[in-house]
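User: Could you go from structure to sequence for me? I need the amino acid at each position, not a summary. Structure tokens:
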């Protein structure tokens, strides 16, 4: 996308459209601009013609609010691989502590995000300190940035990240993905977790679902996070369906590419 805010771009596009309609912008102008642009790009011939290759290179396939038509593309962040379960999470990120929090591990791997550190996460209230694995922070940042563009009406009130604990806070259970700082919970009071009998959970955002979570995360928010590699706690296997799960953890996202098995929250 060209490097303008969506608002500024929309203003410029409206202005230019008027000039085009009035015949003020000519083919000479377009040729000159095209040639200038092509000379700055190694992958384009400097022929001044605004053909399909040059138009594609401009990448203007964004709507005015910054959300691409047809949804977000997956985001290629700095890491080469992603864990698919708890075992591969240990392989990639190490052991955050077996019987208690390993403070040395946390010191080496966990970072904090806050207004005062100059790295507040998009949409997160300025008073909140968020602890997250430093290698996964770029994915969280981009996911939340996209969520702000896709679902600006959803105001995040609370966001929790790293905390060393067992899944569902139960001693003896395997470690939660929060123990590596690769999971977050958003607004537990609005996106609480709930169990259903097999096959009785509602489809996400259906009327039955909305009756239970009336102020919960909207679909565009969840899609934005998923596009950056986060599995959602109400669709663990990421097949786009919620009713095939029994445990809905609507507040929870984790940076794990699920292999069809919900193995922890
Ligand atoms: Zn969680």
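Assistant: Here is the amino acid at each position, in order:
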């Amino acid at each position: 996308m060209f490097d303008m805010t969506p608002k500024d771009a929309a203003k410029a596009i409206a202005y230019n459209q008027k000039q085009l309609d009035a015949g003020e912008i000519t083919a000479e102008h377009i040729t000159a601009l095209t040639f200038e642009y092509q000379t700055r790009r190694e992958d384009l011939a400097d022929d001044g013609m605004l053909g399909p290759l040059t138009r594609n290179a401009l990448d203007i396939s964004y709507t005015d609010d910054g959300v691409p038509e047809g949804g977000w593309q997956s985001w290629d962040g700095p890491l080469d691989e992603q864990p698919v379960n708890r075992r591969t999470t240990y392989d990639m990120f190490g052991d955050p502590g077996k019987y208690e929090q390993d403070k040395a591990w946390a010191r080496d791997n966990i970072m904090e995000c806050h207004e005062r550190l100059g790295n507040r996460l998009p949409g997160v209230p300025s008073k909140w300190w968020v602890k997250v694995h430093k290698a996964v922070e770029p994915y969280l940042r981009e996911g939340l940035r996209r969520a702000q563009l896709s679902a600006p009406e959803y105001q995040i009130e609370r966001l929790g990240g790293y905390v060393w604990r067992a899944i569902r806070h139960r001693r003896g259970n395997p470690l939660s993905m929060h123990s590596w700082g690769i999971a977050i919970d958003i607004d537990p009071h609005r996106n609480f977790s709930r169990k259903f009998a097999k096959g009785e959970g509602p489809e996400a955002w259906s009327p039955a679902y909305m009756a239970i979570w009336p102020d919960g995360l909207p679909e565009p928010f969840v899609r934005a996070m998923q596009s950056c590699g986060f599995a959602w706690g109400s669709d663990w296997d990421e097949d786009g369906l919620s009713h095939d799960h029994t445990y809905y953890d609507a507040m929870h996202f984790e940076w794990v590419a699920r292999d069809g098995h919900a193995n922890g929250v």
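One structural detail worth keeping in mind: The pocket of zinc ion is lined by residues 178, 183, 185, 249, 252, 265 (CB under 6 Å).
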